[in-house]
Amino acid sequence: MAQDTLRQAMLRKDQIKNSSAKAASANAQEVAKFEAMAQEWRDPKGKYKAVHAFNDARIPYLLSEIQTRLGEPSGASPHLNGLRIADIGCATGLISEAIARHGGEVLAIDAAANNIEIAKYCAKEQELEIDYQIAVPELLENEASSYDAVLTLEVVEHVGDLPVFLNATGKLVKPGGLLIVGTLNRTIISYFKAILGAEYILRLLPRGTHDWRAFVRPHELDGLLQPDGFARKSLVGIELQPIVWKWQTTRNPSVNYMAIYQKKL
């Protein structure tokens, strides 16, 4: 990478690190954790292969929901027809790439510089145009009400200040637009499945990936988002089916779930 690009990346990283007021949602320990994971995150056969399989289940659902709820024409293959979509906490870009392939204009941000550099490289290799930035949502004040849909998937359980994060993320959504939150429910079942099962027994994720105490219940999300004009429109679970060993969307949100909110006009 050219020196000027590296310098810009480091300046952006320092801006996040040093601005305590504007980066209130960032959790330095969690950012460092995902910085360390970044290099292995893209390997579909590596230690994060469960993440790739998980994405295979939720991407078709996400594409379909964005298309139909925002009034785009339906078809055999989802097409987002130039909708402006922001991916907040994009990691190394797996979701951002899927959206871009289906016609979305994507802004993707992450607080971990390593994630963004890998995501940029992968997008270039695939000739995908994605606007990747090292940032937290509080730094996007000039982008308020700019996006048809904003996604934040498997992020809210890792942030430092959830109300600040959700408020800043919600401001990016246009009136009538969608906010899609994917996270883990704080239930006894999720402790046994997502912590003991996934991290300690099945080793689907490295130990310490998640802190059960930071998991967020759907009604807690509702309470934080309703004052900003959001109403929940859909709630689905994502479960690993043991017989076929495949992730599927279900009606059970007791462990992993995705909630779709619409912003009032």
Descriptive tags:
265 residues; alpha/beta; Rossmann fold; eight-stranded mixed beta sheet; 8 helices; globular
List the helices and strands and how they pair.
Blueprint: H1 3-18, H2 28-41, H3 49-69, E1 84-88, H4 94-101, E2 105-110, H5 113-125, E3 130-134, E4 147-153, H6 162-170, E5 173-184, H7 188-201, H8 218-225, E6 230-241, E7 246-250, E8 256-263
Parallel strand pairs: 1-2, 1-4, 2-3, 4-5
Antiparallel strand pairs: 5-8, 6-7, 6-8
Helix pairs in contact: 2-5, 3-4
Describe the structure.
Residues 1-13 and 16-22 have low confidence and may be disordered. This protein is α/β, with parallel strands linked by helices and 265 residues long. The chain has helices at 3-18, 28-41, 49-69, 94-101, 113-125, 162-170, 188-201, 218-225, and strands at 84-88, 105-110, 130-134, 147-153, 173-184, 230-241, 246-250, 256-263. The protein has one domain: Vaccinia Virus protein VP39 (Rossmann fold), CATH 3.40.50.150. An 8-stranded mixed sheet has the order 3-2-1-4-5-8-6-7.
